[in-house]
């Protein structure tokens, strides 16, 4: 078996739960599966599975490697679909879960619909972490780190969080020159919908201490409210670049402490694993990968 075969065998064993079950899916013997796993472990220099007479389970290193392998298989499937469906018109209903986002994201969704008129888009907006399978989504756009290695993923782009305030607020209360200066200001905070905790701001290596001292002049679980409050001069907000940048460009908001608050957040497409890669899903993921980064800035 070549390198890619070894990866596909490893993923199938993880999904099936045993060498014998994986062998039945792949049409080979359990012995052949076991030998393929041993060769793969020898090649990469790590143990992938804990084994005993009754069961197998992933090692911690195996779990990390599995996440990488799923991404490799997803990219390969996407490439195959891209070429094989060059003359096919994607069609059908596509259920998408997306975070509560700015108008820029929505413009990209509309561009997708114009590009693929035979696809009917069904978008559900929520900042909570949804269950793709239980809730019947074809694909989810997710912000931040991904935890579930059973899902297939593709990174679509990155953005940054920006500390911003209106010129009117800064004229009245002064412009913070250091991170510690934020402790004396009215802060507009985002509450995470899934954890129900107030999100930390990216305030450098001592962020936990400084975040604990920030005021909660306004707490909301929707960035549109925090943006409106910042524009109205209520206080300082920490907003994603795709919410803040057009207002920074207009001069209605100022970007604060940029050099002291470097950070980056990933946006990924996530979809359930399984045989095949529907053409409509491949079209959506490819289109988002090509067009979303420009909007994210």
Automatic annotation (TrEMBL):
Classification via Gene3D superfamilies: 3.40.190.290, Winged helix-like DNA-binding domain superfamily/Winged helix DNA-binding domain
Keyword Transcription annotated: yes
Keyword Signal appears in the UniProt entry: no
InterPro entries, per database record: LysR-type_TF_proteobact-type, LysR_HTH_N, LysR_subst-bd, WH-like_DNA-bd_sf, WH_DNA-bd_sf
Keywords recorded for this protein, A-Z: DNA-binding, Transcription, Transcription regulation
Residue stretches making up the HTH lysR-type domain: 1-59
Family annotation (PANTHER family): HTH-TYPE TRANSCRIPTIONAL REGULATOR, LYSR FAMILY TRANSCRIPTIONAL REGULATOR
UniProt similarity note: Belongs to the LysR transcriptional regulatory family.
Protein name, per record: LysR family transcriptional regulator
Gene source species: Ancylobacter radicis
């Amino acid at each position: 078996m070549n390198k890619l075969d070894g990866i596909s065998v490893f993923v199938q064993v993880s999904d099936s739960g045993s060498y014998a079950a994986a062998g039945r899916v792949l049409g080979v013997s359990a012995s052949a599966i076991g030998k393929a796993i041993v060769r793969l472990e020898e090649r990469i220099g790590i143990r992938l599975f804990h084994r005993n007479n009754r069961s197998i389970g992933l090692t911690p290193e195996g779990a990390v490697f599995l996440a990488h392998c799923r991404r490799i298989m997803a990219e390969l499937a996407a490439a195959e679909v891209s070429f094989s469906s060059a003359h096919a018109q994607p069609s059908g209903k596509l259920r998408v879960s997306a975070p509560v986002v700015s108008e820029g994201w929505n413009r990209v969704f509309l561009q997708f619909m114009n590009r693929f008129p035979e696809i009917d888009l069904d978008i559900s907006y929520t900042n909570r972490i949804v269950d793709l399978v239980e809730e019947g989504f074809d694909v989810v756009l997710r912000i931040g780190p991904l935890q579930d290695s059973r899902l297939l993923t593709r990174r679509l782009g990155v953005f940054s969080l920006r500390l911003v305030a209106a010129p009117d607020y800064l004229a009245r209360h002064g412009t913070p020159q250091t991170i510690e200066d934020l402790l004396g200001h009215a802060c507009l905070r985002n509450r995470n919908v899934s954890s129900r905790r107030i999100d930390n701001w990216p305030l450098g290596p001592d962020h936990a201490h400084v975040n604990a001292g920030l005021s909660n002049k306004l707490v909301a679980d929707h960035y549109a409210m925090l943006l409106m409050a910042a524009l109205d001069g209520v206080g300082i907000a920490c907003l994603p670049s795709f919410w803040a940048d057009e207002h920074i460009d207009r001069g209605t908001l100022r970007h604060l402490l940029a050099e002291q608050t470097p950070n980056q957040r990933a946006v990924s497409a996530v979809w359930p694993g399984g045989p095949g890669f529907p053409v409509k899903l491949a079209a959506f993921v490819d289109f988002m990968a090509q067009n979303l980064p420009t909007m994210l800035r």
